UniProtKB/TrEMBL annotation:
Designated gene of the protein: Cbn-tag-65
Region (Disordered) location: 1-27
Signal peptide: none
Pfam families reported in the protein's UniProt record: G-patch
InterPro entries hit by this protein: G_patch_dom
Gene Ontology biological-process entries: intracellular calcium ion homeostasis
Domain G-patch: 1-43
Protein species of origin: Caenorhabditis brenneri
Name of the protein this chain belongs to: CBN-TAG-65 protein
Gene Ontology CC: one annotated term: perinuclear region of cytoplasm
A GO molecular-function annotation: nucleic acid binding
Domain of life: Eukaryota
Segments traversing the membrane: none
PANTHER family xref list: CALCIUM HOMEOSTASIS ENDOPLASMIC RETICULUM PROTEIN (PTHR12323:SF0), SR-RELATED CTD ASSOCIATED FACTOR 6 (PTHR12323)
Length: 65
């Protein structure tokens, strides 16, 4: 965009009235969750299970070193 004349800190558009801050890309999702809609949250059981699974994998990586 810099090649087209835009400079950092200025708005988009011909009159520079557009957004200044970049749009958030959102969170990175797992394969199983990637096609769920925006704002979708896991139920408490799934959150707990996912957290424990991550801890298990992290500990395995620690012991393999």
């Amino acid at each position: 965009m810099a090649k087209m004349g835009w400079t950092s800190g200025r708005g988009l558009g011909s009159n520079e009235h557009g957004i200044v801050d970049p749009v958030s890309g959102g969170e990175i999702r797992d394969r199983n969750e990637q096609f769920m809609g925006l704002g979708r949250t896991l139920d408490p059981y799934e959150q707990f299970r996912k957290q424990r699974s991550g801890t298990y994998h992290d500990r395995g990586a620690f012991h393999r070193k």
